[in-house]
Each structure stands twice: as structure tokens, then as C-alpha cells.
Amino acid sequence: MSVPGQSHEPPKEPGTASTPSSSGSPDRLPPSAFVLRVPEGRRLEAVQALLRSDRGAADRFLNFAREHRIRLDGMWARLDDAGRMVMAALASPGAGRTATLFATAARAANDIAPLSDLLRRVLHGLAFPHDQIDGSATTGEATPLDIDLVQTLIDPSEFRQAEAISRSGMARLAELSYLERATPRGPILKAVAGPGKPIAEWPSDIRAERWDPANRRELIQTLERSYVGTLDCPALAGLRRGEDVLEGHMHSGTFEPSLWTVLRFISGPHEGHTAGVCLFNSSTSGAGQTGSLELVYFGLVPEARGRGLGRTLLRHALDGLRERREATVLLAVDDRNEPAHRLYREAGFRTRFRRIAYIHSLRSAGRGAG
After folding, report:
1. b/e map of 284-316 (b: 16 or more CB within 10 Å)?
2. Please, what are the domains in the chain?
3. pLDDT per residue over 34-87, tens digit each?
4. Is 251 exposed, middle or buried (0-12, 13-18, 19+ CB in 10 A)?
5. Residue closest to 51 by CA, chosen among 145, 69, 43
6. pLDDT tens across 219-272, in order?
7. CA angle 203, 205, 211 (to 5 degrees)
8. Angle between helices 216-226 and 242-250 (to 10 degrees)
């Protein structure tokens, strides 16, 4: 499973907080405070407010953004009475019309109300970039970002951040466990059909094959079918177009068709139709590092469930990684999906950390439907 456009978090700088905290009680906002979309000339100041950091940390963030081609035109900031930026939020667009939202940390109870108000205005600004809201001047650049879905991930311990996000109108999607195991090594202790092509013990009506990018429409239909009755983030079903879902998977890390496996019925009532998918992408942490492989999506269509095919598919796909140079394999799974947790534990995965995912659909907000 993958949260749409699943994003690893940008570096967090622990440096000193040079940006003042917002004032006001938890339920009342300063009447003169307002929000603007950050123009290019004030991005350094906005990043300092975003990170609550000094200039050095903000410069490092900006360099990181340039190196990794992170767009910064989706940044909003809250100003105090003197016009200084005291809070900021960045909606970073990714593939598949999905943006990941990063925001100033709510460190105290009196940060919750102004932060939730800022996030609410950001969500409105993303949906309606030329609007004003509540009569305040939402000035600055207003280029639409072509986004249908906004997501954010926070640590479960960040309870103030969670309250601000919930108040802004974002919906809690799931608590996710991020699992990891070492990449399989050594020979496969069974027959193989050619170098690096393991033979799993498939039922007579099932075949595993490498995905052919020419079959794009078929894969989209398979993904959509696999959402029916899913236990993994079921609230995501129907929120994005199939094309956008596939684009998100293809751009989460480095796409290699050889790492994408499709199951197909080869006999019986569903002959010729796909039965499931297992999609890995690769990623590296920097020059000279081995990086990791990420399971960006794993799922079966309803007709293929209850037969143990998930276990066989996962084993088959992991066996195919034995000659890869990446050191680890990563994935994220909804904590409510106990069958998937059992499957991954049996395959050697262990929990690395957890995050709570929140989402907001701009299509359901009245923009981009259809």
C-alpha cells in the first residue's frame, strides 16, 4: 500500500527558533493577523517561519529544495501586526495531482488556532487560487498548482499538530506503520527459469509476469479493482483519477518496469484478466549510497483473495530482488489492516516508525470534479 504520492519528509532542523510564536488564546485569533501566498522574494523568511529556524537552516532547506526540484510556489504564511511571518505552510506538488503539506510545528496550545486557520486558508487557496477568504488579503502569487488531493504525515506524538490539522478540515486517513527488512540475498532454493527469474508455486490458473508499460489502461483498471473491499486506507478509494494514481506510483522513487509484477488468470471464468499487482521502485539517499527499494503498491482484485496468492506473490517479488544493490526494502501499511501486517511480518518486515496520515480532497471541495 502507499499513501498517494508518498513522500519522505524533508530534513528538520533542530536549530534555534528565531521566529516568534503566534499570539492569542487557543480559540481566538489576533483580529489584524492575515495570510498571504508567499512571493518568491520572501521565501527565505517563510522557510525560517516554516522550520522555526535561523537563516542557516533555512538556506540549507532552500538548497535541498533546489537539488531535489521541490517547488516552493505553494507556500503560504501568517503575518503578525508588524508584517513579520510567524507561521508558514508549504504544499509541495507531486506526481498524480497530489501535494504533501508541511507546516510550522504547533509547540504550545496557543499555536493551535492560528495554525489551523492558516492551514484552512491554504486548502482554500489551493482549491480557489484567485479567491479571498474571510475578507483578509490573501495576496501574492496565484498560479494554480493543479492538485486534486492534499496529504500530510505527522508523528503520533504531535498531538497539538494533529488538533490543528483536524480543525483545518483535513480528514484523518489512517495511522501507518513503516516497515523494513533487508533485501534478500543468496541463491533461491528452488528451480529458476533463466537468470534472476524465480518460479513461485502458483496455482494452475495463475501466472506472474512483468508489467508491460503498453498495458497502462489494464493496470489502471487492476488498481481500481483492487480497492474494492480493501482494508488499507479505504477512504482513498475514488478520490483520485486512475491515471493520477498510476502516475503517483510511477514517480514514487525511480520507476523500473522490471520491478513491477502483475498476476494474471490463465484459465477459468476470469481467464485473461489480471488478478493483482506488486510494484517496487528504487530510491537512493545520496551519491555513493546503496539506497532502498520501496513497495509502492501491493493488492489483489476481489476474485483472487482468500487463496494465499498474496503470500506467494510477495515471496516471488522479493526473490526477484536478490541481485539488487539496494540494502533494504521498505513499505507502509494501514495499522487496521491486520491481514497485511501478518503477511509482512511472516516475510521478515519489522516496524521502523509510525505516522498519522491526513488528507483533503480538493475535488470534493468543489474544484476539479469530473
Report:
1. eeeeeeebbbbbbbbbbbebbbeeebbebbbbb
2. 34-169 (3.40.630.30), 177-354 (3.40.630.30)
3. 899 999 999 999 999 999 999 999 999 999 999 988 899 999 999 998 999 999
4. middle
5. 43
6. 999 999 999 999 999 999 989 999 999 999 999 999 999 999 999 999 999 999
7. 95
8. 100
